[in-house]
Amino acid sequence: MFARLCFTLTVLLFALAAHAGDLLIENITLLSPERSAPVGHQHVLIRGGRIAAISAQPIAVASGTAKLDGSGKYLSPGLMDSHVHISSVPGLVDEDSAEVRALRKAFIRQQPRSYLYHGVTQLLDPSNYLPAINAFNAQPQKPDLFRCGAVPVLNGYPSVFVSAEHRHQHMPNFLHEPANTDPLPTGTHAEQHTPEAVVAEVKASGALCIKLFIEDGFGDASIWPLARIETLRRVREAAHREGLLVLGHANALDMQQHAVEAGVDVIAHGLWNWTSIDGTEGLPTPIAALNQRIREKNIAVQPTLRVLPGLAALFDANTLSDPAYTRVVPPALLNWYRTPAAQWFKQELKSEVGSDDEQRIYRRQMRIADQAMRALRDLYERGHSMLLASDTPSSPTYGNQPGYNTFQEMQLMAVAGIPLQEIFRAATINNARQFGLEKDYGTIEVGKIANLLVLNANPLASVEHWNAIDQIVLHGIATPRAQFSAMATP
Ligand SMILES: [Zn+2]
């Protein structure tokens, strides 16, 4: 009786007046990760950009309210990718010419649309380059963007890739280890670069987290300075006092061991660099032992399975003829990718490995990628929960494109043997909880922000169905997917 009364009142309440931005989605199957199974024939009312009501009964609304017929369709929360770099144009040369400026401009316009095209409505960029963040947020329709503050050690990775004169400008919050005798950049003082001072700066910037870099060199190299465990622990203590999470970049066995010792909250990569261990098959004992430590300390892991295949893509003749590229890459940029000038990073990789044998380089990258997938599968089997995090783009490769790379990351998780329900959780509730955003995102529940996907097929039946998006609902506004394609005029 009481329930009946509440229902009647609800109908009355919503019937009072139509608001701009109201949306009623009718007769749809709900897929929400806190539910054990899909629920058919539901009606969802969105008001003021948030979910206002969910009912098995039709909801009466004022005439003029926008309606969407969900018959035969599925409603999912929008996806979150918790590792993307919005300031990088995949594969573009670092050059100040009119051509490059125009390509960059076209990319900035399309990037948020490409993420939305693939249903990614929340992003976390672990770096904090404000000009790029402002340019992203100035776009008319864009995913909700969160960020960490990048905290490299002085002259360490990844600041080594920025010229010495611009390094401090790009990554102002570096850590200074007293033992590092490199001169400090002009105008900076050691006391501004203690763990506590750096954490305070990042907190003041509005970031959710700190990103540390635990990387002494790619492959077997050991050439870049590392912060000591004690310094990293001080960062963690200061960050936790300020309510910030700590992410640690690490993808090699020894570097992830360092990250685990330092007590980071999230390791920002999968474990694919098995150093000198033979990785031909199975899971070597040291890898399994590290996974067990990660499990025991409950450290979250961002798989970033697409890093190596994104490099291998440069050696695959079919990459640029993949029809999916036409949906996410601006036409001018796609044409430029086909020019000799755009092969600069591929040439660099070839000279790095000292080989011209493209087939061999491709197979090598894919073999390392397979190690990442085996390590992830083992972590899952230990009962660890997954996060969706693609690291787009992870290097200057055109093989990691916004939105599409997130979808490809989900495909690889499936190949690695992660069940579809867990991939769904990784992309929604797990990312939301991990980054303290579950009040607003991650499930379809009353009160949450209406970032939702209407799908034509059930993605819990096949991972490919994440590519069957019909409409993207962003803060309550529904847009047909095709409008976000790079082939559509904005
Ligand atoms: Zn990254």
UniProtKB/TrEMBL annotation:
Q: Where is the Amidohydrolase-related domain?
A: 74-467
Listed InterPro entries: Amidohydro-rel (IPR006680), Metal-dep_hydrolase_composite (IPR011059), Metal_Hydrolase (IPR032466), Metallo-dep_Hydrolase (IPR051781)
Q: Name one Pfam family in it.
A: Amidohydro_1
Q: Membrane-spanning residues where?
A: none
Give the range the annotation lists for the signal sequence.
Answer: 1-20
Supply the alphabetized keyword list. Answer: Hydrolase, Signal
Q: Name one GO molecular function term.
A: hydrolase activity, acting on carbon-nitrogen (but not peptide) bonds
What domain of life is recorded for the organism?
Answer: Bacteria
Please identify the protein, giving its name as recorded. Amidohydrolase family protein
